[in-house]
User: What shape does this take?
Amino acid sequence: MQQEYYISKKRLLTLIVAAIFLFAVIFCRLAYIQVIWGKDLQVKASEQWQRDLPIKAYRGDIVDANGNLIATTETGYSVYARPKSVTDAEHAAKILSEVLELDYQATYEKLTKKGVSEVTVKRQIDGDKASEIRSANLDGIYLASEGVRSYVYGDFLSQVLGFTSSDGVGQTGLEAYYDKYLQGINGKLLTETDLVGSELTNGTMSYIPSVNGLTVTLTVDSVIQTVVENVLELAMYQQKPQAARCIVMDVTTGEILAMASKPSVDLNNLPRDNLEYLMKYSKNTLLTDVYEPGSTFKVLTASACLEEFRNGNSKAFSAEHVFGNSSGTRIIDGSKISCWTKHTNGKHSNQNLSDALNNSCNPIFTDIALSLGKNTMYEYLNKFGYGSVTGIDFAGEQAGILVPKSAVTNGDLARIGFGQTIAVTALQLCVATAAAVNGGLRMQPYLVKEISDPTTGKVVKRFSPTVVERAVSAETSAQIAKMLQRVVEEGGGKNAKIEGYQVGGKTGTAQKFVDGALATGKYVSSFIGFFPASSPKYLTLMIVDEPQGQSYGSIVAAPYAKLVFQEIINYKNIAPLT
Assistant: This one.
């Protein structure tokens, strides 16, 4: 009997322990659901009983260096329908198709579509049409305000700004590169619905506001940009080339003050139905396309020569060294290299380095490159940034084409000395030339100065001048600037001369390669210049691609660079030197 009592007591204790354990498990489960899982369940419940209407954030503005508006977002509207809340689909389809200029049957099918909570009827309509739809008071039809991207000047800075998709997402240019700052955060308008998705008559509405995008301030000055755009249009009209391009840069900071190519596109009226045309003329070829720079490249060879002489390299030549009489040709590895003019009647005889730059004499620069050797020449190619991207804040930049040092022949090296057998981007040439004349520092170019919050004015991100490396000494740089000033005063760059102002520069004329071979009669004519030569500030590269008629950069490109310089002088009210 006593044994049965102990067995019963043991069973009762086991039952109590099991019950306590079961209740503990249930309690823990409830606690988990309430505390840990509660928020997720609330969200799921809300999604089942609510429908949200998107409130698109307004994309941030883009302004120039002076705060002038260039790209903004204007108010537009999108029309949505909730089929389960549409009470008279035929009437609604008739009104919407007439106001929005849509096909009636397609609109009716949207309004009666099964298995969806919401459909888009049409996006980006103007305020007048939105008012007509609002006044019709159509059940189940809703309007949501959204931003429509607008460019103040249309065809202006097109390849730099880029454009957005119809959904307001940056696709190219700065619109794409700085998209995360410009796009903002979308909001919502929440309404209560029943189990089948119909809106409740006495349901509540919740509003989650959108947060507009940030303001991007460029280094580009819209006044200088306008000058460049107008000058390029003039060059297109007078020279009838395939294209004309220009960069204006502050050599002391690396800031891009203007950048343009013609032909271009109107950002407010993009040819989206012709993708080949759109991509061709919206691409920023100043960063993405490469070409043989020709004689403008001689600035690097001259800089390397002077710097190496200053450093005690016995294979380098001094500024005073006289190269002696020249036949005007060189035979390198069995290949003939000629100057642009025949060396007769004493032409190009007994030249020093300044004379060689002034006369743009190819054989002298061949001699310099071969004397320095490929190791030294490639050291300076790297210092000046050739063969690598500049690091500008823009997607798609190319590094140019540089023959691997291990594969370079004497013939290759000889031609590199005067700007052949090397392909560069226009921006690379600007950065390298700036380094040669600004005191010897290679600066990283940039297009955006700062990013700020338009509501508070607080600067979120600021960009400052960045020195990449020293290319040459300040003394060598001053010598080069002075020599290039002489080129404009006396030599091939005289069509860029401005009385009372120290303009320096170098012209270039390079034959184009088409399908791997030199194309007869097709040239890229260019001029790269800067002022004031004694303390360089503004640098301009002007490129005229396949001009009709004359092809020399001194005739085709230099005069247009002069126009840009003159307008900068007028704009900045720069007094002539006394």
In short: Confidence is low (pLDDT under 50) at residues 43-49.
